[in-house]
Design a protein that fits this description.
Number of domains: 2
Order of helices and strands: EHEEEEHEEEEHEEEEHEEE
Helix content: 10-25%
Structural class: alpha+beta
Strand content: 35-45%
CATH class of the largest domain: Alpha Beta
Distance between the termini: 22 Å
Strand order of the largest sheet: 2-3-4-1-5-8-7-6
CATH architecture of the largest domain: Roll
Radius of gyration: 18 Å
Number of strands: 16
Shape: globular
Length: 264
């Protein structure tokens, strides 16, 4: 199991959730993925954030919905590693995106910012200082894939291509159309763009979905149900990929799981 001490600039380096009930969500993920929670507090003793570990290594994080954002749903976020968050913020606005949270220092860990791309999908960036991001990924019970779902994947892909220099490999996926795989990164390819499924178009906002690798999709589904979560899309087998499903934690944050197809 490789341990990441850094991540390639322009690739995902971290994921976290924002929740209406951090304690409830944290207990859910501890039960489903066997994570260990490491809470952090400010100087006044107020809870700020949870870091999650697997086998002693950082996987992801979770925190509360920020003040002033009442009514915002629980969600998972994708962070892209950058060299200069301030410069990235300028590039975002110059290419048709929107700054939601200007670059801010997070103690001595690094600097973060939150943006919207031209389709309205939110994404975060991370300029690491002492905290490089996830120490393990692409392993069971860790995140492994980041997928942009929107009604205009062409515009989205062009935006990120200009912003991060991403290149793509278009793959014909039959009924669901073209899947645009993002090339490069830490593991060859790490994500992609696809059209929002017609059955949820207009109901679900454009967004970045986070996938977690699991050893057994059906067992994970059972754990999700046992711990108060929901199944948003029943498990299905995707040839050449594996068995996937879309789930939600008890506070409503959606995430996907992937049981990779074994080589024949």
């Amino acid at each position: 199991m490789p341990i990441f001490e850094s991540h390639v600039p322009g690739s995902p380096c971290w994921v976290d959730f924002q929740s209406t009930d951090v304690e409830r969500a944290s207990k859910f993920y501890e039960a489903v993925f066997d994570w260990q929670v490491e809470p952090s507090y400010d100087d006044d003793g107020n809870h700020v954030y949870n870091m999650f570990k697997l086998n002693g290594h950082y996987v992801c994080g979770g925190g509360s919905i920020p003040p002033g954002h009442d009514g915002h749903p629980s969600t998972w976020n994708t962070y892209i590693r950058v060299l200069d968050a301030g410069k990235t913020a300028q590039d975002v606005t110059e290419n048709g995106g929107t700054v939601v949270l200007a670059p801010m220092q997070v103690m001595d860990s690094g600097k973060m910012a939150v943006f919207l791309d031209p389709t309205g999908a939110a994404f975060c960036v991370w300029e690491p200082h002492k905290h490089p991001g996830s120490e393990i990924c692409n392993e069971p019970n860790t995140w492994s894939w980041n997928e942009h779902l929107s009604n205009d994947p062409e515009t989205a892909a062009a935006f990120y291509g200009r912003l991060f220099g991403w290149t793509y490999d278009d793959q014909d996926m039959g009924p669901i159309g073209v899947y645009r795989v993002i090339e490069g990164g830490d593991n060859g390819g790490w994500g992609g763009f696809m059209n929002m499924p017609p059955e949820v178009s207009g109901l679900v906002p454009n967004h970045w979905a986070v996938y977690f690798t699991v050893s057994d999709t059906d067992q994970t589904v059972a754990l999700v149900k046992e711990n108060g979560g929901s199944v948003m899309s029943e498990p299905m087998d995707v040839p050449g990929v594996g068995r996937i499903t879309v789930l939600a934690d008890p506070t409503g944050a959606t995430f996907s799981t992937l049981q990779p197809e074994l080589p024949t």
